[in-house]
Specification:
alpha+beta; binds 2-acetamido-2-deoxy-beta-D-glucopyranose; 31% helix; D-Maltodextrin-Binding Protein, domain 2; 737 residues; 7-stranded mixed beta sheet; globular; 30 strands
Length: 737
């Protein structure tokens, strides 16, 4: 080798040493990241911000995304599909790029994208949660290492974020976990990590624990049954089901799971015997024999020092209690705890090459964490780029470790993968477009990662009708239809609605309403005879079907040739838009009286405002476009009629409008089991709106799976459905349905 070449080599290596470390950030936090680079630190190590601008979607025939999305088709790097938090199948043959912002993907998926960037050496590091580490372990050809941990100021030296422990009275005659059977147990609350998920995950491995795979029950009910069979009495507060009726039914049926609570009848928060310390109070003062909680709260409860927190006064006697270890031995609570699982710290994940030059990087991160915390409130980048928080900002160096080993050390992998025993139940949602399929799969992965079971699966069919048939044939469990089709589809395919969309900040269904001027005098339906009416378009529930059903039902018109009868009743003239279209008037009848009052734009609110009509039949969703000081509602649903303000549309209306509803067949999974996943997802996203908006636009498409306007999901009541069926029958006798 000549000297010249050697020099070049040295120069190259030198340049390599100075290479900046690239931290991966979601695009929307790129600015915050650049602000972070401006911060002066002692460490001269250079950081760079790598924003992840694209996601790749699988695109082969059936899976292909809409043409609109292919604009950015520049050939994506190879990607794989993530399903149920795992990598599914082989690398797909063909891939497309989608602008990330357009895709409206959640933070969760942004994290996943960054993991790929690091794996492929486009970036060097990314902050991660244990759940992200789990996803990371499933990426092929990865060589990730976790090289720094984010810990709390309270416990800067603790091995784990928290440890799940079993606490018992010291003399409890138990020397293995099987003997927990028949005891009285205290828990933090339903669905929580140390008080619920971890005990279930660990106990279900033991033969004495009841099986949780009975297909006659939903996964959640199987869990409740198992606990209530295994323990004599317990306190497990919280909403057991997102559906209030199911919740109440279960609370009545499995009431011994509430027996040890402060308020067994409520069995919900706040309860003195729930939560981390409440479980210990339940053990010490309410007859509990075993409590599931975490170490830091045990030490605080008994006044023992923990981490940097000194000993404190406590009226509780630590000498009466012990930890029960996984091997059945006991350890006094004054001593180091034995646990059965732990939640590891969050931290920084890099590819294996970073371990070669770790010290400057680690110093840099630590100095940034200190600098960020010194500014109060901490700058944007503290949270959004580094992933630190008010509570968790002590950065600690650890021996670089592979994420799989890291999770295993805490027994946390099995907690994430928690199942119910084979066969694992699945709920299959039928969708009719490629983009809906993509969204459904995103929802499925997201729900699985958040411990929502049964697992969601997605089935694609060509049309709504095909989906309904598919549900009837048990090819899927749920299919959606709009408005009155719910009654028609139910009849034709022997299905019934399980849940539906709700709207507005109050999360209510919409109603067909009759709006009148405040200055008018009618209060009863008869008063409307001979007057002028304005309607939502032909075929709509609010404009045609609800008023028609009402008039027929009240005997105000006869059920023959009924569209024309509207013109007879409102003999002053009406505006029923589209009534004269060929498909709505195939015989070419004279319907001019039903168009007589139409304003230039054909809209019912204009018709009312411009005084072409005395009453408008519209949806409660339209009320926001009317001046409340001038108009009010006519309560046709009340026997005595009357008027009310817009705000009371739910009690003063003609009828509830069937929302977009999801139908299921009779004999497959129970409705409770089928509805649990979508309702739980809706409930979770209600609280955590920044994660993933299932109702918003998806990949620039509107109304994918859910209507953009929806704000929640609710269980469909039989009473409401029976009313829709009655309306359907009356209306279809008129030849419209
Ligand atoms: C709840 O527990 C606290 C602490 O043990 C106690 O002071 C309080 O009286 C309890 N409240 C009720 C309603 O029992
Ligand atoms: C993991 O499980 C084993 C055996 O059940 C137990 O001994 C160990 O303490 C557990 N690890 C943690 C961190 O809790
Ligand atoms: C419906 O299909 C599922 C999944 O293939 C199957 O497990 C279930 O037994 C079927 N149900 C009925 C009633 O046939």
């Amino acid at each position: 080798m000549t000297l010249k070449y050697l020099l070049v080599l040295v120069a190259l290596t030198g340049a390599h040493c100075k290479t900046a470390y690239k931290i991966c950030v979601p695009v929307q936090h790129l600015k915050a990241c650049q602000a972070m680079l401006e911060v002066e630190t002692k460490s001269k190590a250079a950081l760079e911000c790598l924003a992840e601008p694209v996601v790749c979607a699988r695109g082969a025939s059936r899976w292909m995304l809409t043409r609109r999305l292919l604009a950015a088709d520049k050939g994506c790097r190879a990607r794989v599909e993530i399903k149920d938090g795992r990598i599914a199948g082989q690398r797909p043959a063909k891939l497309y790029e989608i602008p990330l912002q357009a895709a409206g993907v959640s933070q969760y998926f942004l994290r996943v994208e960054c993991l790929y960037q690091v794996q492929q050496r486009q970036a060097d590091l990314v902050p991660v949660d244990p759940e992200d580490m789990y996803v990371a372990t499933n990426i092929p050809n990865q060589d990730f290492v976790l090289f720094q941990e984010y810990r709390t100021e309270d416990e800067p030296d603790a091995e784990f974020r928290y440890q799940a422990v079993i606490v018992v009275h010291k003399d409890l005659p138990v020397n293995n976990l099987d003997q927990l059977k028949g005891l009285k147990s205290c828990h933090t609350g339903v669905n929580r990590n140390v008080g619920y998920k971890i005990p279930l995950t660990m106990l279900m491995k033991r033969n004495v624990f009841p099986k949780m795979n009975d297909p006659h029950y939903s996964p959640k009910e199987n869990e409740l049954r198992a606990f209530s069979t295994f323990f004599k009495q317990s306190c497990i507060v919280g909403n057991w089901s997102p559906d209030q009726r199911t919740n109440s039914a279960w609370k009545a049926q499995y009431s011994q799971l509430c027996a040890l609570c402060e308020h067994p009848d409520k069995c919900n928060y706040p309860d003195n015997f729930s939560g981390y310390d409440g479980a210990l109070r339940c053990l010490a003062h309410n007859g509990g024999e075993v409590a599931f909680t975490k170490v830091i709260y045990v030490r605080k409860f008994f006044g023992l020092p923990v981490g940097t927190i000194p000993a404190s006064q406590s009226s509780e006697n630590p000498d009466e209690f012990a930890y029960l270890c996984a091997d059945g031995s006991k350890v006094p609570v004054r001593e180091k705890a034995c646990s059965w699982a732990a939640r590891p710290w969050q931290g920084l994940l890099g590819h294996n090459d970073v371990t070669a030059k770790l010290t400057p990087l680690r110093e840099k991160i630590k100095q940034l964490a200190v600098a960020g915390w010194a500014t109060q409130p901490p700058p944007d980048w503290f949270t959004n780029v580094l992933g630190l928080t008010d509570k968790i900002h002590h950065v600690a160096d650890n021996v670089p470790i592979a994420p799989a080993t890291y999770l295993k050390k805490a027994n946390y992998t099995e907690v994430i993968e928690r199942g119910h025993g084979v066969p694992e139940p699945i709920v299959r949602l039928c969708v009719t477009s490629n983009v809906a399929l993509a969204k459904c799969q995103t929802m499925a992965t997201f729900a699985y990662s958040r411990d929502i079971r049964p697992k969601l699966d997605c089935v694609q069919e060509a049309s709504e009708t095909d989906c309904l048939k598919n549900v009837q044939d048990n090819g899927s469990d749920l299919a959606a239809v709009d408005e009155m089709k719910v009654a028609q589809a139910a009849k034709k395919y022997h299905l019934h609605p399980v849940f539906h969309e709700v709207y507005g900040p109050e999360k209510k269904p919409r109603y067909a309403v009759a709006v009148v001027k405040k200055s008018s005098t009618f209060t009863k339906p008869e008063d409307l005879r001979g007057k002028r009416s304005c309607h939502d378009a032909f075929g709509s529930f609010s404009g045609l079907k609800a008023p028609l059903f009402y008039l027929i039902n009240k005997g105000l018109i006869t059920p023959d040739d009924c569209v024309k009868k509207i013109g007879t009743f409102f003999s002053g003239g009406a505006c029923l838009p589209e009534v004269d279209k060929l498909e709505n008037n195939p015989k070419g009848d004279d319907v001019s009286i039903l168009k007589k009052q139409c304003p230039a734009d054909n809209k019912p609110l204009t018709c009312l405002k411009e005084d072409h009509g005395d009453v408008a039949f519209v949806s409660s969703a339209d009320l926001q476009n009317l001046d409340e000081s001038q108009y009010e509602l006519l309560c046709l649903n009340r026997d005595r009629g009357g008027r009310d303000s817009f705000a009371n549309f739910a009690t003063c209306n003609i009828a509830m409008i069937p929302s977009r509803s999801w139908l299921a067949a009779k004999d497959s999974l129970s409705d409770v089991s089928i509805a649990h996943t979508p309702l739980s997802l809706a409930e979770l996203l209600d609280k955590k709106t920044d994660l993933f908006n299932i109702y918003g636009e998806y990949l620039k498409n509107n109304n994918v799976i859910f209507n953009n306007a929806a704000t929640g999901l609710a269980t469909t009541e039989k009473l409401d459905f029976d009313k829709f069926k009655a309306i359907h029958d009356v209306i279809s006798n008129c030849g419209i349905a």
